[in-house]
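Regression test attached.
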Amino acid sequence: MSAAGIAAQFAELALAVLLAPLLTGWVNQCRAWLQNKSAPGILQPYRVLAKLFQKEVILAHNASPLFRSAPYLIFGSLALSAAIVPTLGTDLPLNEAADAIALVGLLALARLFIALAAMDVGTAFGTLGARREMMVGFLAEPALLMVFFTASLISHSTSLSTIVAAIAHRELVIYPSMAFAGVAFVMVSLAENARIPIDNPATHLELTMIHEAMVLEYSGRHLALIEWAASLKLFVHMCIGLALFFPFGIAGGGDWLGLVLALPALAAKLAVGGAALALIEMLSAKMRIFRAPEFLGTAFLLAVLAMLVHVMLEG
Amino acid sequence: MLQHFGPQVINLLAAVLLLLAFAMLSQRRILSLINLFAAQGFVLFLSTALVAALTDQKHLYVSAAVTLVLKVTLLPWILHRLIRRLNVKWDVETLINIPTTMLVGILLVILAFNLAAPISQLAGTVTRSTLGIALASMLLSFMMMITRSKAVPQVIGFLSMENGLFFAATAAVYGMPMVVELGVALDVLVAALILGIFIFEIRERFDTLDTRHLEKLKEH
């Protein structure tokens, strides 16, 4: 653990928390451009957050303390998971405490609390959304784990910074298994972040909504935290994808210059990634909820194939 | 450069071949199935040409060219014509549902990899590690033939099984002798034509393309 490592850790956490709404704004803007609409400003998510923080909180009569504490727990666990993913440097103090499996666990914890809170008040919509979310979650998690395991097999470690260091700082080798894992990861991320083939992030009206159905009962600063956490989740997933499949530009241990240079590299990669996400969303249609198991089953299959292909071709 | 990245690109192409085999297994629409078959042929052409360039085997260039003509253009064209003449617009019916088919497919892949592991250790080719994938895509095509009830997807399964076989031959021993290869290519072409006529005949008799009707000896 070095001074540069600690600096990288704090910089990463601050960056994730502060820039996550910007990424959401960028994705929304790209999507609006692609749909030939006039785009909202890229800072729109910040304005929404500021507005929501000023509004008063309205609670249902039968809301339990769980309902009130859930937004903080969700935001906290997602912020922690953002701190684990190496975005600027690989020498992170927190990485010795939590590896890729713990990261999946943290994401699951956030999902658990949002689903519990949605069922807490007892409205039909909340329960419906929670059940759907858990269905998507239980199918998406094994696929995500398999993607991590493929990367772990290549680098012989489940620690994310070791994986990134191993993939980033060696001579260029083509890994067919990582191609499979990459496709699987994109599919899982779309499902986990409630993006288009599984859920529509822009809807408040349809019966098909998943994420929005769960947060209907929230208002004021609670809703702001949940919205912020959703942006953070997208940011974390995109950073995981960039770290596993395009780790170039992430600084090694104790490298101050590398850390400074990693920042524009990250910004460029995120901009391209956000545009790609908007493009994927534009090109696909929302699928029926009953087709979601098939979609995620395919993702799981691809991730398993990635492991098998690694054993066969690269072993 | 070619010697360094060549085998890796062949591995990548093999992985794509396996992916396409799974995509065919999960495909519900006949038209996309034919396009996937053509894509599989194209990947096969690329990998054969690459092996030829890497190992300097002249006859592999010829087989690559045959693959390009036959499997990427001619057979898909025949199949497209066939479904246009038959006017088949419906979705493919499967006997087992698709997620189960995929899971069985994974088991087949594991089986094929285990079977191929000792053989590929004996082979001395640069492509030996792709033998398992060739075997797997053969088995997957075979399973596609089994799990589909309509005649056209079964024919496509048969043709793509030949793709896997061809890839296996390239992987294990740099391709079969030229005479055998040309013979097989001709066989496949003739088989596609005969099966096309056969399909018309089935529809003539039963008013459907469901081959399950062939299991009964008499019409009721």
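Expected vs. actual: identical. Chain B is about 80% helix and 0% strand.
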